[in-house]
Amino acid sequence: MGAGLAAIGAGIGIGLIGMGVAGAIARQPEAKDEIRGQTFILAILVEGTAILLGLLSLFIG
Amino acid sequence: MLIDKTDTSHSNDPADVAIDHVANNYEHIILKLSLIPEKWIETYPLLGIFDFSITKHVFLLILVAFITVSSMIFLVQNYISSKTKVPGKTMNFIEMIILYMRENVLKSFIGEKYYKDWDALVYTIFFFVLIGNFLGLIPIFDFLGLINYLAGGIPVVKDLIHGGNTVTANINLNFALATITFGAFTIAGIKRYGFFHHWKNLAPPGLAWPLYFIVVPIEVMAMLIRPISLTLRLAGNMMGGHLALIIFTQLFIIEVAKNYGIFAALGGSIFSVSLSIGVIFLEIIVAFIQAYVFALLTAVYIGMAVNVDH
């Protein structure tokens, strides 16, 4: 259950990032590379939290 | 993993099989190499740091390090000594990766001026983690198990076969790598700003003084948690993929065979094999991304220590 909750949180977070990125690239195609770099960092941070929680639920459960 | 009939130390419990597959195995040590008598370690477990026995993961670690170093030296030597100076296929691929890393990671996060000090570290971390991740995807140990099974038990191979695993799924190894990153960004900051100024950079200047009681502990905690998050991200990703793979292939078949007999398991294996092929493709992507992420975050942290002023 913990893993499921972590997955839901990460899914929403990464989805929001993806939405923002798609909008940003559509608005400014010339800034594609910079946006991509920032996206990676944000997605990593969101994902890191999810993985931490998933591991916790694995070890406790 | 083929079942070794002479070995009775393994249970058929699905959870045990999965953990045995992923975790480091202390029961089957390839080479015993302890600086102090084993009785001391049994009484004082902390003395275990002097135990340099080669387990499955240590063996993999040495293998990965050897492959990383020797392949790079071989490729670059080959390129330098060739008369035409045309890079081969593999060399081209590696050049492409390094160029991408230099333009998009090092130059944009550390900056034009300072990236030359740290590029070697970032490339090394990238290739080490990449080769570690990919070596875990190749079932070498399971293949050794097949050889062992056919030959009827070879002494050294017998200790090697207990589960193939990614070395980067080991938390200890990842924490060692993350400690190198931690040391690197600390040294980078000290080199740029001097010892005392580097620690002053933790908190932004110009706040009202009571705020520092809140800001400084938060910043110190954020700094200390960086290696831990690096460790858990890589280990969690690698371990999660392998656990999913094991659950889809072995556990599924074991459970079905237990409850519904061997023919149902044969039918179910079609389903589980096709699922696990999908997981393997996902794992190939994840192996690449995680190596990139580890190197990227190293560069980002170094960049944050070096370019405080903006």
TrEMBL record, chain A:
A GO MF label: lipid binding
Keyword Transmembrane helix: yes
Listed Pfam families: ATP-synt_C
Gene3D superfamilies the UniProt entry points to: F1F0 ATP synthase subunit C
Annotated V-ATPase proteolipid subunit C-like domain residues: 2-56
Keywords: CF(0), Hydrogen ion transport, Ion transport, Lipid-binding, Membrane, Transmembrane, Transmembrane helix, Transport
One GO CC annotation: proton-transporting ATP synthase complex
UniProt subcellular location: Membrane
Membrane topology term: Multi-pass membrane protein
Segments traversing the membrane: 6-27, 39-60
Keyword Translocase among UniProt keywords: no
InterPro entries, per the entry: ATP_synth_F0_csu_DDCD_BS, ATP_synth_F0_csu_sf, ATPase_proteolipid_c-like_dom, F/V-ATP_Csub_sf
Family (UniProt): Belongs to the ATPase C chain family.
Record-given protein name: V-ATPase proteolipid subunit C-like domain-containing protein
Originating organism: marine metagenome
TrEMBL record, chain B:
TM spans (from-to): 57-76, 120-151, 171-190, 211-228, 234-253, 260-282, 288-308
GO cellular component, one term: proton-transporting ATP synthase complex
Topological relation to the membrane, as annotated: Multi-pass membrane protein
Keyword Magnesium: no
Coiled coil start-end: none
Annotated Pfam families: ATP-synt_A
Subcellular location: Membrane
InterPro entries given in the database record: ATP_synth_F0_asu, ATP_synth_F0_asu_AS, ATP_synth_F0_asu_bact/mt, F0_ATP_A_sf
Entry GO MF terms: proton-transporting ATP synthase activity, rotational mechanism
Keywords: ATP synthesis, CF(0), Hydrogen ion transport, Ion transport, Membrane, Transmembrane, Transmembrane helix, Transport
CDD domains: ATP-synt_Fo_a_6 (cd00310)
HAMAP family attached to this UniProt entry: ATP_synth_a_bact
Family of this protein: Belongs to the ATPase A chain family.
Protein name: ATP synthase subunit a
Organism of derivation: marine metagenome
